[in-house]
Amino acid sequence: MVKIHYQFKRSTPLRFLSHLDQQRLFQRAFRRANIPVAYSQGFNPHPRMSFALAMSVGLTSDAEYGEVIVSTDIDVDTFIHRMNQALPKGLEIIAAKICGEGVESLSASLYQSDYRIRIKVMPETDLNELAASVRMYLELPQILIQKRNKKGKYVQKNIRPFIESISVCADAEIDHVNVKMTLIYIEQQCVKPEQVLASFNDQIRAVFVIDPTIELHREKLLLKVDA
Amino acid sequence: MNNYIEKNILPLVTKPITYLGNEVNAVHKIPSPEMIRFAFAFPDTYEVGMSHLGMKILYGLLNEEKDVWCERVFAPWVDMEEQLRQHDLPLYGLESMLPLNVYDIVGFTLQYEMSFSNILNMLELGKITLRSALREEDEPFVMAGGPCAYNPEPLADFIDLFVIGEAEEVILKIMAAHREWKKAGGNRQDFLKRAAQIDGVYVPAFYAVSYDKQTGLITAFSPIVKEAPPTIRKQFIENLDQAYFPEKIVVSYTETVHDRISYEIFRGCGRGCRFCQAGMIYRPTREKTVPTIQAKIKALIDATGYDEVSLSSLSTGDYSEIEALIKNLVCDYADGKVSISLPSLRIDSLSIEMLEEIQKVRKTGLTLAPEAGTQRMRDVINKGVTEENLLDTVRTAFEKGWGHVKLYFMIGLPGETLTDIEGIADLGQKVVDEYFKIDREVRNKSLKVVLSTSSFVPKPFTPFQWMGQNTREEFKQKQRHLKASIKDRKISYSWHDSGVSFLEAVFARGDRRLGSVLEIAHQKGCRFDGWGECFDLQKWMDAFDEAGVDPDFYALRNRDYEEILPWDFINTGITKDFLQTEAKKAETALTTPFCPDACSNCGIMEFKKGWKCNG
């Protein structure tokens, strides 16, 4: 049994995959690529594979992590090569490494996510003013949002500790802006970039038009070992 | 258009990934001016259409042709339709994302009558003129095939040409005719005249129908151009083992209705159930050989990465070498990473043994279809299943740990009485009793028996094609009676709404006069009639009213054996005499044997010279 951690990209053609779609896709790609994926024991064996994060529908990313356990040795170059032949356009493995025993699980080792967001803004939004407002927002000692907990009850959560930085810049289209955002993981918890933008709208002023046409892109995903 | 849709429309709809055509094994070609652009249209959602085997075969087959690019198009779900209409964007072929009206041919597959309104909606969304008579020279030819094409008449106004029977060979002949026509130059009529001369092609515009003013019955049906033959012979593939089957099939990203490799092991069925259209029109029975099946399944798994294969046919247990096949497949996939499923099994305990051997089944639900509640009724429909068969089967299943049994029945069958309805409840009770006979230690902890009824729809080319359907009131009464006859709390009852079945009966045995009804219903917004959340019977009744067409004339009337039926011009190889004999035998509950046991002279052996069934 060997554990392989791999890094992959997801681009526009496949950004609409759901988490489940993507799981199915990888399972089938492993089989097409003839990767000797190990199966769980039990009555209903399933392939031993997982992702560090569940990607939301619409998200593109330059840096996702996946994990697969194989039953026989395979060298990483072969793994990458065969997988990239089997994966459809829109998904690509960019790196892989064989992990030793006792390596922390991927989801436990997440550290930081860098996002680039292209989003529509209210008419006549001035970029300089917006930049100033963002600074104001970040200076808030705490930023509370309403969040449903597992029991379905609304609770308040302070998201300020999860925000490392936010900056805004112009877009080719006048009614859009690009937002760069660095968010961090604390004890496997995080905040979603859309939630940050929504809380900005609440706390400072309604600038961002949050609808399904928002374009979210993850530029970097750092693990604790990288940081 | 491509980029605009991706950015502005797809984020707003459910299942956006199904509108992009970029799946693994989807075919993308570099277009050239001489290329024939073919849009294979499935008039239902992506998830339903992508489960359909015929589409996979023809998609692969057409794309093997260098100068043909076959793409796919499905009925957009209502949210996508709304977006397309709002943005005034046309429905498009998935692979190249070109508007439907620029293709050379748009070919619909007709799997069930309740998808007819979707055809009109898709044509409209694709900006194609609905009525073939009004189509401009540069519009696509609209083609249709599949089981419902055996009575093409309700769609005669909208379809330029129909393929009657199995399309694998005919469709290539149509491609050849299209090539020659393009080279020779000519108008739409010229192409259609070429096509009409191909065996198995029906061009409705080349035929005239006349009706009796008083009774509304058909008085004559005949060709009006010399190129059109008076009868259309259905086409079938003689050597199924050698017939084309794709090595690669498109792998959907989303979960489809049948999300697995479906591999056809034989075509046709010799059981002769009298209600079953497929059992008649797909005759003769033709099998693939065990080595072919094994090799093809292996190749398909390699090309797709699927981990489940289902062996498809009309009655899987009737495959002549079923035991050898299962033994070999179990051996091929002994590592347990690929599972094999056997749908459409007959009711016998052998079936359960086979299931045990081949499937890693979670023993939750077992579905069986006795179809009728009493032995007399099962003999009327020639189902060939006895109560003993059924009880043996459920006993075996209960012994193996199953606890949930679902039984399918039809109500409204010919000559049905309330005793037959009560028989359904009795059978349910006997199943419950079987469960309690099993040792507590062995049987499943919980028991659930579900009785489910659908409302019988008489179909063309079956022995019941002359029979009137029950009225909705009769169906309701029977449903109430059945519900009242069920005494045990372990038994639950579910039924299908008879409104849909009524409409299905109208269109299954309808004629050309229904064209205007379809058009009006379409204008009223009818589509996805097979989907409970979209079906609106009232709109349809209004459409019948406005068109001045009486739906009862088609659905409820008992027809005379001498009457000219709308589909009489099609020769399926099964003679009308045979169907009539079967209808008469049904009246006295006389059964007809399974084909391999004794030939009942259905006509198929005379239909094609040299053909011999079962060997």
Automatic annotation (TrEMBL), chain A:
Classification of source organism: Bacteria, Bacillati, Bacillota, Clostridia, Eubacteriales
Organism: Acetobacterium wieringae
Domain DUF2344: 3-193
Descriptive protein name: DUF2344 domain-containing protein
Automatic annotation (TrEMBL), chain B:
InterPro entries reported in the protein's UniProt record: CHP03960_rSAM (IPR023862), Elp3/MiaA/NifB-like_rSAM (IPR006638), Radical_SAM_N2 (IPR045784), rSAM (IPR007197), rSAM_horseshoe (IPR023404), rSAM_sf (IPR058240)
Domain Radical SAM core positions: 251-497
Any one GO molecular function term: catalytic activity
NCBIfam families membership: rSAM_fuse_unch (TIGR03960)
Protein name, UniProt field: Radical SAM superfamily protein
Organism expressing this protein natively: Acetobacterium wieringae
